[in-house]
Amino acid sequence: MQIQTAELEGENLNRVVARIEGLVEHCDHGFAYLEYPTTPATFSVMLPCYANDDRLTGAIIDRERITTHAYNHGTGWYATLGYFCQEGPTRKIAALRCFVASRLGDEVEIPK
What we know:
Layout (H helix, E strand, L loop, with lengths): L1 E3 L5 H11 L3 E5 L2 E5 L18 H11 L2 E5 L4 E6 L2 E5 L2 H14 L2 E3 L3
Antiparallel strand pairs: 1-7, 2-3, 4-5, 5-6
Helix pairs in contact: 1-3, 2-3
C-alpha cells in the first residue's frame, strides 16, 4: 500500500523509520518481527516507537541535523533537512516525516 510521507503517523511511521534504520521486517504465520541484518542470528525485537520516544527520535534529529520549528503558537511543527520539509502535530512526527522524505521521497510503501 502506498501512503504519502506527510500522512505517516503511529505504527506506520515507526515501521518506515525502522526500515531506514536498518531493521528488516518479516511476516511469518501472521506475526511481524524485526531483525538486525548485521548480526549472525535472527532474533525478534519489538517495533521501536520512534514517534513517541524522545531518546530515539532525538538521536536521529541530531545525527541527521534536522531543524524543527513550532508554528501556530506551538500547535504544529515543521522540520527541514536540506531542501526537504515536512509538517506534523508534534516535533518528533515532523522530524521523522522529514527524515523519511529525505531517504524515500514523498510516497512510501507500507507492507500490509
